[in-house]
UniProtKB/TrEMBL annotation:
Name of this protein: Sigma-70 family RNA polymerase sigma factor
Annotated GO biological process: DNA-templated transcription initiation
Molecular-function GO terms, alphabetical: DNA binding; sigma factor activity
Pfam family, any one: Sigma70_r2
Matching InterPro entries: RNA_pol_sigma-70-like, RNA_pol_sigma-70_dom, RNA_pol_sigma70_r2, RNA_pol_sigma70_r4_t2, RNA_pol_sigma_r2, RNA_pol_sigma_r3/r4-like, WH-like_DNA-bd_sf
Domain of life of the source: Bacteria
Domain (RNA polymerase sigma-70 region): residue spans on this chain: 34-96
Family: Belongs to the sigma-70 factor family. ECF subfamily.
Keywords: DNA-binding, Sigma factor, Transcription, Transcription regulation
């Protein structure tokens, strides 16, 4: 018997393959899951159910617009709930939810963990990328970081698809060499 995860993943895969009915069904089913998720988290900190509805819509939009980043070989629900969790964190930051209002046992679920690691990684990545020629840097940014297809990256950058592939390959090779040299130092 297929699990909810299997069904949702199958709907996502079908939606990625262009099946609009499957995509619509996925979003409808997800809305029920997300509504329950947000209501339970928000009720623990004394927030209203109307906020949950807003968050459901934000999460569904984010899932829809970022669907190209989903890897069909991976489980679907952790990917979707990661988006949902970050939408909740963003919402609480925007609405200035005080940590004092959060019960201690729920604090770990709604606060970001190790933000400094992400910040440091972003700084390191920017420093490394700055060492590359613009052509390579843009190709890597479009394909590897923004998740665009090679064809989309080529259109956006005015390069041929082959040139984008070569730039990505050479750029990653150059980054690898820089990292190797830094580790050796």
């Amino acid at each position: 018997m297929p699990t909810d995860e299997d069904e949702l993943r199958d709907l996502m895969k079908a939606g990625l393959d262009g099946d609009a009915a499957a995509h619509r069904s996925l979003l409808e089913r997800l809305s029920r899951h997300l509504r329950a998720y947000y209501k339970s988290r928000l009720s623990r900190i004394g927030r209203s159910a109307s906020e949950a509805e807003d968050l459901v819509q934000e999460a569904l939009i984010a899932i829809h617009t970022r669907r190209h980043t989903y890897d069909p070989a991976e489980p679907f629900t952790p990917w979707a709930y990661a988006i949902a969790r970050y939408k909740l964190i963003d919402h609480l930051r925007r609405t200035k939810a005080a940590r004092a209002d959060v019960p201690l046992e729920a604090a770990g679920e709604i606060t970001a963990h190790e933000d400094h690691v992400d910040t440091e990684s972003a700084i390191d990545l920017a420093r490394l990328m700055a060492r590359l020629p613009a052509k390579m840097r843009n190709a890597i940014q479009h394909v590897k970081l923004d998740g665009l297809s090679v064809a989309e990256a080529a259109r956006r950058s005015g390069m041929s698809e082959s040139a984008v592939k070569v730039s990505v390959h050479r750029g990653l090779k150059a980054l690898s060499a820089v990292i190797g040299r830094e580790k050796a130092s």
